[in-house]
Amino acid sequence: MTPRxxxxxxAITLSSIASAQTADYAxxxxxxxxxxxxxxxxPETPTWxxxxxxxxxxxxxxxxxxxxxxANTLEKRPPFDHARLASGLSSATKGRYTAITLxxxxxTFADSARAIEVTVDSTxxxxxxxxxxxxxxxxxxxxxxxxxxxxxxxxxPPAWDERPISSPDSSHEATIQxxxxxxxxxxxxxxxPLSFDGVDADAYEWRTLVWSPDSKWIxxxxxxxxxxxxxxxxxxxxxxQIQPKHSTRLYNKPGDVLDEERPVLxxxxxxxxxxxDPALFPNAYDVTRLEWRKDSRTATFEYNQRGHQAYRIIxxxxxxxxxxxxxxxxxxxxxxxxxxxYRYDVADGKEIIWMSERDGWNHLYLYDGVTGRVKxxxxxxxxxxxxxxxxxxxxxxxxxxASGMSAGKDPYFVHVYRINFDGxxxxxxxxxxxxxxxxxxxxxxxYVDTYSRVxxxxxxxxxxxxxxxxxxxxxxxxxxxxxxxxxxxxxVFTSLARDGKSDIWGVIIKPTNFDSTRKYPIIENIYAxxxxxxxxxxFGLQLAMQTQAExxxxxVQVDGMGTSNRSKAFHDVAWKNLxxxxxxxxxxxxxxxxxKHSWYDTSRVGIYGTSAGGQNSMGALLFHPDFYKAAVSxxxxxxxxxxxxxxxxxxxxxxxxxxxxxxxxxDNAWRLQGKLLxxxxxxxxxxxxxxxMQVVNALIKANKTFDLLVIPGxxxxxxxxxxxxxxxDFFVHxxxxxxxPDRNRVTTVKGDAGQ
Length: 755
Prior knowledge:
By secondary structure, the chain is an alpha+beta fold.
């Protein structure tokens, strides 16, 4: 073959590659318009209006419509005239809506069902159903909310308020003035101080003040402020002025000194101040709002110790000021307060339903609230309670969500059950092999069960609660038109974890032009936050991953050890170890697929993620460069000492130690191998943007090569449409070895200037 022939052949090859790449980009960029709106009859979560009527939204071709149902007769009709409402909303908002593209997902009836209220682009509107005219509603200014548990300051400072708080019998009012507690008789003009020791640096907090039910006592927290850490922002390119803007935000980080909150009780008639011994709640990360028992003899609060290894329900005797731990939860790793804390007081606290992982699985326990002893374990087994739907104290029965109860089935599928307080009578309310969402009527006579899988569009059914009898199927989603486009549901795949016994579950997404004779690079979408599990379980197009796949990739998502909703041992892998991110399990999972399918090319594996997933994706190149070759890391919390306190201390613990450094992408930046794209928004109010810039600094000091995309004005996220495009191009270049489209080329069309 002559040099000219070789050159010509190379040109033809490059041309064909470019042509295929152009087609792939076209298919990716058109994925939404090609695939969206083709599933019909898919119902969404219903909303009950009263004990016999409910409504839901369901999909129709290229849109949605609302359906009103009578539970007694199964009669279905529209709750309003969709076309007339679309016209009324278009006139009121200057939008352009049709009967099947109404600009809201939910609504409420108003004026005895003669009108509905909806929110369109943050504007609340009321539309009359008589003539379908729509008018804007004035919103009341928000009232400062009672103190909520959270630990640390985050966001805007709490609003100061001195408005009087009335006693239950309306005889007195209380407030905070000059940092102290004051009371007065209702209608009086003169306030009487109950405390004199409050000062600016150790003040009583208005939002925490609570009257006892008998109006004789006040409970309140006295707060000694901790460190007020601020994050500073410079918005480089504001829309309303040429010059940059500066702003600040309160943002406690791991290790910061927190507010010290101490409960104090006051007997109003005698003006007696009762200071509470803090022995049972030292070094608090957080305490919950004070709550009085109905008999006004005691008040309770929940205490979360710094480090999240001790959690207590504490009761204060008003007369004696003595405290006791009604429930004391102490664990060697972490108490998962942010996702697995549940308490229900029965008969004013004489019994307490409590959630715990003490036997290795998340379950419910019945406590004697008087003695503090466990009366019995309510739920039990190698499965997890996912939440409580309802407690029927009269029947002594609990309705709850759980997963993993059926051997051999997906352990993440949520089902609904009921059980008696004593642990007897366990009864499933859902049956289909899918993940379920159940909504009960207000009187709990009926329930609507809506369920789906990644390969099964939603189905909804109406049941009687008493005997679980199926009254009728409401809707069944149909994906025939979607399948006709070449789209296929994600494939579910499982393999064994590093422990050799736990199943690891994930999904595989292929391009719509998938060819089993080709070898495809792999891209993993990662988020390994221990607060939940993330691989999809319900039906959806998975458009973000599908669009990436259209460019010639296999895209996957998987939950490794360290994520939630499995056993305590499975979850504990994350403790003081966020850098692990389940990678040993993920890599085993990938290799198990490759062993089964020749088209799965583990020699070319990329990974991307946002936020904690941004930390994870960069960590893949630092700690597992032998497997992962390219990563896109968006707004990552790259060092857990730099991120918000409430998320990071929950899993990494307190006090700070070397384990924070071992998991840090900053301290380990020198390890970088492979190709890396960092993405950050300069106005990210979730993760401090400095977290990314410190990684950049460390990479530069280590003389590493990488790409950086800083998006002016952007908040927390992967960078919007531009960030997505950069991710696409990055993986096309690094994993496919192809050149992305040159978007800087100016193409002229007929009629342009200069023609």
